[in-house]
Write a structure and sequence with these properties.
2 copies of one chain form a homodimer.
Chain A: H1 7-25, E1 30-31, H2 33-40, H3 44-54, E2 65-66, H4 67-78, E3 84-89, H5 93-99, E4 109-116, E5 125-126, E6 129-133, H6 137-144, E7 148-151, H7 158-168, E8 172-175, E9 188-191, H8 194-215
Parallel strand pairs in A: 3-4, 3-7, 4-6, 7-8, 8-9
Antiparallel strand pairs in A: 1-2, 5-6
Chain A binds a DNA duplex (30 and 30 nucleotides) through α3.
DNA sequence: TTTTTATCGATATTATTTTATCGATTTATG
DNA sequence: CATAAATCGATAAAATAATATCGATAAAAA
């Protein structure tokens, strides 16, 4: 899907990175695919295949991968180094929670400001991020050449706001609303869909409970 | 993975449901796999295959599926009818945002209360949900036989809290912290991992921009 | 120094998921 | 009432992803 790299691989990359940070903290210099696989509940094969797509340096037989080099390579692969500016649109509860989320910086994402239509929040600061009126959105996007928008408006405004964002020049939308939004093919969309996550969790739970019931009979 | 039904299928189910609600609102009685596929950017084949796993009633040739019946079947399949109680642990910004999120009820999830260690929030109400001290967590879980926990504590406490929850009898953890948590095999975990979502979004964006650059040369 | 061991990276195999095909069937049309 | 059109559901084919295998090689042990 992305050149050669699969979506699943991209999903796993941050997990490797997280584990590697921990290992570095413990002073580990090398780590094998077997160890990483065990720590993350994966197979060594998939770890090796995934890492082969991000890394520059080869792993060494008998010892594995150099932790520091691998961290550099994955960070680079994921673009954590060249910080990306983003706007956040819709500063209700969830929007403010995300505005205040300090973790984004670790992933190379820099929210430059929040935007909202309500005078109740406009002008306020959340964790140092100013909330501006929606009217200034298009100007900010164009002037600062911002490519990424985080969408946290009420779902009934999601499509209209998405349209406006695309018109203003946004190229990637991180959609936290439950609404399904339609965008042109040359715009990236990522849906953070609670319903679908919950569906999977419920299914897992049901399966687990069913298995237990079968055993207890 | 879950009996016969794939994880991807579970992910798509709530999307079908959402679309079906819209169609019902418009007064549509029947809908074909072709229409659903178009609305959701899928293929008719996958729609038919997915629906075949959730539905009881057969679709009719020439007209498609009865919207109302299909809604019932999917709701039932996903367990939206028999509401599931849950606790939310960690009432910081994100936790409170989720506590106040009214959409969960639509998915059959009922958060009975929030839990936190801080006196600043204990006793407060967020959208009608009371925040209780963590000390009362185990008692509540056992007394009310609660199976699902939403985990929104600071990441450094994630593992310890997960352990406590499992000990108290929780069977499914919806993990909103960036931490990777380890649990016994008979516990369901669903990670709402911002980093991995962002990694995928960035990758999509990069691919799109690259494609454009190639064209413009 | 030789042998053993652990691991990589490439490739082959297997499993899973998606897509395409096609006969059967229902509704609408001439 | 016969024919055409649209769709389902089952199944076959293709694409994708995960896993297993294995020769090469570097480090450690004998």
């Amino acid at each position: 899907m992305f050149g050669e790299v699969s979506l699943q691989t991209f999903h796993r990359m941050p997990q490797y990175l997280k584990t590697l940070y921990e290992l570095r903290k413990e002073g580990r210099e090398y780590v094998s695919s077997v160890t990483l696989a065990e720590m993350l509940n994966l197979t060594p094969s998939i770890v090796k295949k995934d890492l082969s797509q991000a890394k520059v340096q080869d792993g060494k037989p008998k010892v594995g991968y150099a932790v520091n080099d691998l961290i550099d390579d994955i960070e680079n692969f994921l673009g954590y180094n060249n910080a990306k500016d983003a706007v956040l649109v819709g500063c209700g509860k969830l929007g403010q929670a995300l505005l205040g989320y300090t973790g984004f910086a670790d992933y190379g994402l820099n929210i430059i400001a929040g935007f909202d239509i309500s005078d109740d929040v406009i002008g306020r600061k959340v964790q140092g991020k100013l909330i501006l009126p929606t009217g200034k959105l298009e100007g900010a996007i164009k002037k600062l050449d911002i490519k990424i928008a985080i969408l946290t408006v009420p779902q009934e405004h999601a499509q209209a706001m998405a349209d406006a964002l695309v018109k203003a020049g946004i190229r990637a939308i991180w959609n936290f609303t439950p609404a399904h939004i339609s965008v042109p093919a040359n715009i990236a969309v990522r849906n953070e869909n609670m319903a679908s996550s919950l569906a999977v969790l419920s299914a897992q739970l049901r399966e687990i409970l069913k298995k237990e019931n079968n055993l207890n009979q």
